[in-house]
Design a protein that fits this description.
By secondary structure, the chain is mostly helical. Strands 1-2 form a two-stranded antiparallel ribbon.
Length: 151
């Protein structure tokens, strides 16, 4: 068993599953309201509320997450899909991580230690998976382009 390939496959599959699950949840009224405090204070996506309702914005984000999830799985067959998925996932996870600095009250204190909403912080690991995808699939695309030129 190749531990590197197995770990990569688990990382991609796990990230895809989480994005699919969270993407589907975005179509519920509870999740739409739940993300509102994060989205409305974000300099990256807060402007979406100027062009859509709370539900429409949540639906759009859900679609983006589901498309990314499917693209992540497609990366097992297509390095181009993997490259696109890597960039889409990077956008998602950098946006979510930005909530750590844009959302009022996200940082709290517990027993003298700073704590935050850990659903945001977990995206640091997912960002690592997305960046690995970009690196791995960029190399594959370069190799494929080289093969095309040598024919």
């Amino acid at each position: 068993m190749n531990i590197k390939k197995t770990g990569y496959a688990i990382g991609i599959t796990g990230t895809s599953l989480v994005l699919l699950w969270i993407g589907i949840l975005k179509f519920t009224p509870s999740e739409a309201m739940g993300i509102k405090p994060y989205v409305e204070h974000s300099f990256l996506i807060g402007w979406l509320y100027a062009i859509g309702s709370v539900r429409q914005v949540s639906d759009f984000i859900g679609i983006f997450e589901i498309v990314t999830s499917i693209s992540l799985l497609a990366s097992f067959w297509s390095s181009r899909a993997g490259l696109i998925a890597g960039y889409l996932a990077t956008i998602i996870f950098l946006t979510t991580l930005s909530f750590l600095i844009t959302t009022p009250g996200i940082w709290k204190e517990m027993d003298g230690l700073p704590v935050t909403d850990f659903f945001v912080l977990k995206d640091l690991g997912f960002l690592a998976v997305a960046l690995q995808m970009i690196g791995s699939n960029s190399e594959n695309e370069k190799a494929n382009a080289g093969m095309a030129y040598s024919k």
